[in-house]
């Protein structure tokens, strides 16, 4: 409303009346009337959306989505006096939906996340362990066949049956321990020399 009309003592139009007037003018073919509608209702929508606790960026997204929805669906508004209510309701629904989505996607502190995730080794630790295993088995491969067989059994069995082992390796039971010690010494020497690579 102009300053002249206010000065003449006429009451200023409410935002709802301005919105419905601009909506009627826009529908009647005045393309600039939509600018007046946006200028009138955006501050109202801003307050509605910010009441949901959204930051500036989120509020702008919701308000933009409200205006896009309005442009798409304005033909469904039969009563021009309902345009303000339509926009406010749409903004409220958009703000509520955005708030629900934001709660689901809320960032979590590392300490909180660590407490609920299973313990797993880092990629670095796995790589180091893999490298060490490759070096060890390379060193085992460098010793003679009899040592390799003995060390494989010892490595994968908690308590090997020495009698069965004696028969499999064609070795007296009493020499299994000393032979194992000599084989381990050979592997140790191969690892020291870098023969595991």
Verbal overview:
- It comes from Nocardioides baculatus.
- Pfam families: Sigma70_r2.
- The model is unreliable at 1-7 (pLDDT under 50).
- The chain has helices at 3-7, 15-27, 33-50, 56-73, 83-104, 110-116, 123-141, 145-156, 162-169, 176-193.
- With 197 residues, the protein is an all-alpha fold.
- The protein contains ten helices and no strands.
Helix and strand layout, with pairings?
Layout lengths: L2 H5 L7 H13 L5 H18 L5 H18 L9 H22 L5 H7 L6 H19 L3 H12 L5 H8 L6 H18 L4
What is the CA-atom radius of gyration, in angstroms? 40 Å
Strand proportion: under 5%
What's the shape? rod-shaped
Please identify the structural class as seen in this structure: mainly alpha
Q: On the 0-100 scale, what is the average pLDDT?
A: 83
Compute the number of helices: 10
Strand tally is 0
N/C terminus separation: 87 Å
Helix and strand succession? HHHHHHHHHH
Low-confidence stretches: 1-7
Major sheet attributes: none
Helical residues, percent = over 70%
InterPro entries: RNA_pol_sigma-70-like, RNA_pol_sigma-70_dom, RNA_pol_sigma70_r2, RNA_pol_sigma_r2, WH-like_DNA-bd_sf
Pfam families: Sigma70_r2
Keywords: DNA-binding, Sigma factor, Transcription, Transcription regulation
Protein name: Sigma-70 family RNA polymerase sigma factor
Which descriptors apply to this entry?
10 helices; mainly alpha; rod-shaped; RNA_pol_sigma70_r2; RNA_pol_sigma-70-like; transcription regulation; single chain; 0% strand; transcription
């Amino acid at each position: 409303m102009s300053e002249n009309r206010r000065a003449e003592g006429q009451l200023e139009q409410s935002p709802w009346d301005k919105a419905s007037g601009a909506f009627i003018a826009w529908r009647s073919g005045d393309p600039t009337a939509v600018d007046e509608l946006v200028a009138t209702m955006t501050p109202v929508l801003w307050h509605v959306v910010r009441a949901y606790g959204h930051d500036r960026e989120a509020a702008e997204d919701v308000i933009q989505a409200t205006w896009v929805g309005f442009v798409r669906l304005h033909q469904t508004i039969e009563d021009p006096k309902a345009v303000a209510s339509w926009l406010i309701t749409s903004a409220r629904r958009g703000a509520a939906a955005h708030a629900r989505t934001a709660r689901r996607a809320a960032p979590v502190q590392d300490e909180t996340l660590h407490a609920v995730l299973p313990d797993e080794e880092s990629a670095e630790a796995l790589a180091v362990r893999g490298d060490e295993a490759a070096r060890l088995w390379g060193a085992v491969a460098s010793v003679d066949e009899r040592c390799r067989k003995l060390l494989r059994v010892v490595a994968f069995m908690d308590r090997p049956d020495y009698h069965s082992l004696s028969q499999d390796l064609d070795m007296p039971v009493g020499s299994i321990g000393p032979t194992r010690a000599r084989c381990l010494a050979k592997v140790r020497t191969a690892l020291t020399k870098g023969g595991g690579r």
